[in-house]
Structure to design on (678 residues):
């Protein structure tokens, strides 16, 4: 009974170890509880769960195991919101070459104009084909289809990465900085950025100076202290989140988690696709608590190193045109803002989680790369190493 | 060990799960790690455990510069060197220059003490790892005097954390864990009753209502906690504010002395703006 419970907890993803399990058994044999289910529950929780984020999962396992209730996990993991109109039924598959071949439909203004017209014309649900708004077609409007300048409506994850307007506001979760698995390699790579400097209160004995001063002091002890050495490198991390970044969330979490523990002076901000006039720190409150990019530019000194993380896969309008952003109206184009960032923090690199093979097929990646002065590196261990070396070269 | 069970005290209301966690930690002699929102009484818990079990209370407050070794002992080589130059007789006994830390004190005290290690997450990442062996075996070796300090009685160790840093797994594995949830209204009523037993029933319910309403304001940077509620009620009583001032439509009246609850000028602005907006809607 108990062993099964232990195994079930592990299956549910709670990191319970044998030591903790033995602690629980020991507590039971010492009669800490008086054979009461509620007390047993509290005891088991205190002994086995070491993080309040796992409380919920623990409760479910406990409930299902000890009361014989049906497992609740299917509901938890498999919950999906049904979309009524634009329901995913079929998906169009195209190769990279095909994608590169499909032509764009005229200019930006024309696209918006046509969209308004189609919205008025169309009444029912639509699927396939290449004119109407619906699913799995090649019309520029709708979801699960493909067109390089398309508009995305009501879709869970951006399927192809080129939609110009995202119409469904989705809540993105914050990057979880607790992913420790596999971050060790990244930490080692980041460690190269370290630069030690003596700062703060003097609290370490400076042996050389003490000996020298004592000798000069006719043999009477004269102590000399120096401040302890600290890692003095300062890093600004800008992370692209949501939309096309959903695929790369794991890699970004690992990088973020490693960077968080490695640098004392680490500031991070989120952006979506391209940097504009506003950034945010908490993704759940991205619409209410924005920090102005100008403030950020004025707050952090030139000695900060800037690392941008993003797939740079977007519509070219988002970079070059004012008002091209997918989420709001931006008075100034993305390239203007990126240029400002680079002027303030010349030591900057862009890390791209998208595989390097695909870079040449995506025009926006080429553009961003050019803006960054070719300092774009893949978000792999090797790429990270190259990027860090580049950061150190720039004076 | 039924006589030494913790059941909360007159000043401290403990929920069932908290009592269980404390008792399990006391019985098995393992450290108890307590997390929770600031102001939910994490630090106070250790004091109350010591008081209710009638044990001596030791507090080790952790700062960002605290090293694990400081909890064991420190060897003051510099003053020994200086004394040797001045010809002090004390210099021949190295023991005179060993400064005992809190853990040493806790290990050598005659009765089982309660040791609070407060805000362990403030220290360096390696700090908890450096204490693993000491907390596990409850003994350590003093290199300078070549002696082993062993605990006479395994002290009851209560560790608090504000979640600023993740604690290492190896450390967590050795502890019992409890997360102090924010109290619900009934528990809160009991807590206030314990602190202000003569409070008028009306004032209590009105102030609690206002308090939970402020806590529900979305987007507050720092939500008011239990300790702030207690301060606020103290102020209300001291200023002799009638319950009517807190009563009725909360969207119309700014609760008096709300500075005791909101500690951040952005929060105060946000709160005033929300009040202003809801007032405009009604007019």
């Amino acid at each position: 009974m108990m062993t099964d419970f232990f195994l079930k907890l592990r299956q549910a993803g709670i990191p319970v170890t044998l030591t903790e399990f033995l602690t629980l058994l020991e507590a039971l044999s010492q009669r800490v509880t008086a054979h009461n289910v509620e007390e047993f529950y509290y005891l088991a929780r205190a002994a086995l769960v070491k993080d309040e984020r796992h409380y919920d999962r623990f409760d479910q396992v406990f409930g299902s195991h000890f009361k014989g209730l049906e497992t609740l996990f299917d509901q938890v993991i498999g919950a999906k919101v049904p979309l009524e109109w634009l329901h995913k039924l079929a998906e169009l598959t195209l190769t990279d070459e095909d994608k590169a071949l499909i032509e764009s439909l005229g200019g930006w203004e024309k696209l918006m104009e046509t969209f308004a017209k189609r919205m008025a014309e169309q009444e029912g649900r639509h699927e396939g084909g290449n004119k109407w708004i619906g699913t799995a077609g090649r019309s520029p409007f709708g979801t699960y289809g493909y067109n390089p300048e398309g508009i995305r409506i009501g879709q869970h994850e951006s399927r192809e990465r080129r939609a110009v307007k995202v119409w469904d506001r989705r809540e993105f979760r914050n990057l979880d900085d607790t992913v420790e698995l596999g971050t060790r390699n990244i930490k080692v790579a980041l460690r190269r950025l370290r630069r030690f400097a003596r700062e703060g209160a003097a609290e370490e004995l400076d042996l050389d100076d003490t000996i020298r001063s004592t000798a000069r002091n006719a043999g009477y002890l004269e102590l000399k202290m120096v401040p302890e050495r600290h890692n003095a490198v300062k890093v600004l991390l800008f992370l692209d989140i949501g939309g096309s970044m959903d695929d790369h969330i794991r890699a970004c979490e690992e990088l973020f988690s490693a960077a968080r523990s490695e640098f004392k002076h680490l500031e991070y901000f989120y952006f979506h696709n391209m940097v504009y006039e506003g950034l945010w720190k908490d993704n759940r409150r991205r619409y209410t608590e924005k920090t102005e990019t100008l403030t950020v530019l004025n707050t952090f000194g030139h000695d900060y190193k800037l690392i941008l993380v993003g797939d740079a896969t977007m519509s070219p309008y988002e970079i070059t045109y004012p008002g091209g952003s997918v989420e709001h109206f931006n008075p100034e184009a993305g390239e203007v803002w990126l240029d400002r960032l680079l002027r303030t923090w010349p030591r900057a690199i862009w890390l791209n989680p998208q595989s390097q093979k695909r870079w040449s097929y995506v025009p926006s990646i080429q553009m961003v790369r050019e803006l960054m002065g070719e300092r774009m590196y893949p978000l792999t261990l090797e790429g990270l190493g190259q990027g860090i070396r580049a950061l150190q070269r720039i004076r | 060990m039924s006589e030494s069970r913790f059941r909360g005290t007159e000043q401290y209301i403990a929920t069932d799960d908290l009592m269980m966690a404390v008792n399990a930690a006391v019985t098995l002699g393992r450290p108890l790690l307590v997390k929770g929102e600031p102001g939910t009484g994490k630090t106070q818990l250790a004091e109350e455990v010591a008081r209710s079990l009638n044990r001596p209370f030791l507090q080790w407050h952790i700062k960002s510069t605290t090293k694990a070794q400081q909890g064991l002992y420190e060897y003051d080589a510099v003053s020994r060197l200086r004394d040797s130059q001045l010809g002090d007789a004390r210099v021949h006994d190295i023991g005179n220059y060993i400064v005992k830390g809190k853990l040493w004190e806790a290990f050598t005290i005659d009765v089982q003490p309660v040791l609070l290690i407060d805000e362990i997450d403030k220290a360096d990442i390696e700090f908890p790892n450096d204490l693993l062996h000491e907390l596990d075996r409850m003994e350590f070796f003093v290199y300078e005097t070549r002696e082993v300090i062993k605990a006479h009685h395994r002290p009851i160790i209560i560790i608090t954390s504000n979640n600023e840093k993740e604690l290492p797994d190896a450390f967590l594995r050795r502890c019992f864990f409890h997360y102090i949830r924010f109290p619900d209204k009934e528990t809160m009523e009991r807590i206030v009753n314990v602190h202000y037993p003569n409070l008028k029933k009306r004032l209590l319910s009105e102030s609690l209502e206002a308090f939970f309403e402020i806590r529900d304001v979305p987007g507050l940077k720092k939500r008011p906690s239990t300790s702030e509620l207690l301060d606020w009620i103290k102020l209300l009583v001291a200023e002799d504010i009638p319950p009517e001032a807190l009563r009725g439509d909360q969207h119309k009246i700014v609760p008096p002395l709300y500075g005791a609850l909101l500690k951040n000028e952005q929060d105060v602005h946000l709160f005033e703006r929300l009040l202003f907006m809801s007032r405009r809607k009604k007019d």
Q: What stands out?
A: Residues 1-119 of chain A form one domain. The interface with chain B takes residues 15, 17, 19-20, 23, 26-27, 30, 32-33, 38-39, 42-43, 45-47, 49-52, 55, 178, 180, 203, 205, 220-221, 223, 261, 285, 288-289 of chain A (CB under 8 Å). Chain A has 15 helices and eleven strands.
